[in-house]
Prior knowledge:
Mean pLDDT: 92
Strand content: 25-35%
Radius of gyration: 21 Å
Structural class: mainly beta
Oligomer: single chain
Amino acid sequence: MKKSILKFSALALVIAAAFTSCKKDEGTVIIDPVEPSDIVTITESTTELKGQMKGTLLEGKTYFLKGDLIIPKNEEIVIQPGVTLIAEKDAGGIGYEITVHGSLISQGTKEKPILMTIPPADRTEANIFAGMWGGIQCSEDAKLVLLRWTRFEYLGDQGGPGTPRAGSTRYGFWTRNPETEFILEDCWVYGCKDDVYRPNGAKINLVRNTFEFCGENGGDGLNCKSGTIGNIAFNLFIGGATNAFKPSNEGASPVQSNVFVYNNTVLNSGWRRPGMSRGANINYEVGARGGAYNNIIVNCKRGMRALEDADLPNLKFNNNLYYATHQEMVNEFIPQDAVNSTQQVNGDKVIFGAVKENNPLFVSYNIDQFSYADYEAGELQPKNMNRVGTNNFRLQSNSPAKGAGTTSFSPLTVSWVHAVGNRAPSVMQPNVDLGCYPTSGTGNNHN
């Protein structure tokens, strides 16, 4: 692992680190004290955001990211329901980001969601994977990132000078400390160039979210590294480039990654990443432990995978349903490069079948509409392969996914320090119906 010693000045909070691959992620950050006079307090008249700031973005207002917004150590920004934040670009065409050394609290509601996006003229299909702004990038000092009912659009691209990923492709969200608390609930991510979320350590709770158009020709949805502990549940993931969820213990954290992935629905994922070494939709590797239950996997490049270097004695897959329109997909229900290790963790209630067997019977979705050539078409894939649109992924009353799950396990227990009170995470219990839309109506709230 390559380490960089970075130093922030009191006025500029310069963060610089060059990362050239997914193998080189962590850095050590040294922060000089920030004088209170250097921090701008957001007021009722504020509409432009840049530099070191703290305070509250007021309900229903529109704000413009005119530079990298920096939340200093031990400070916070709270975003109220109905806020729109429009990220602009610098003179070199690099979109700005939110850099968190303290806490960011984005508290939208179903009735008044928050929108973080780019200027209207740039919100085109051609820019889905362009990476138009930098999302949320955390230093090792970040305490809490709480994101509820917030829609994120057009994330990624390279970091600008003085940012954590200067010169390298940014993830939509990035944390770097096992003590940072990251909560993503009822959010929607539309378009991300690389990984949506890369925790190089964090306490996580990612539930009831929707992900579409994630990863141009690589990148995962949730790409967990060492020091990541928590739960990923009741998410809808459609059209990812590689894996939807990849727990790994790669890195130098003394905290072993331990992630439970349950009651998710994953469709049409893994196809934009070339080759057969990736695209397992849910993938455990490099010493990660945890469990994956009650998931629905539809027309993905490969089935759920446990590599030989995962913590196999402390890993379990069961009560997951696989469906495939084409034989090539069936052949990879158990990925051929990890047959023995995956079979070792598979329980006896995994639902496999032949081509077009075990259709989960979504309320309204043409599950067999795409040819195998469509899946392999890379950037020329049909766009509706990767979007939710008007489809309804709830289960019909006669679905084989109804009642096929297990509730014999409990979500992973996480010790929350900053996420308390009305900031406490919504820890979801497993449901006996498979996927993110159980018939009880207690799962994903989108659509």
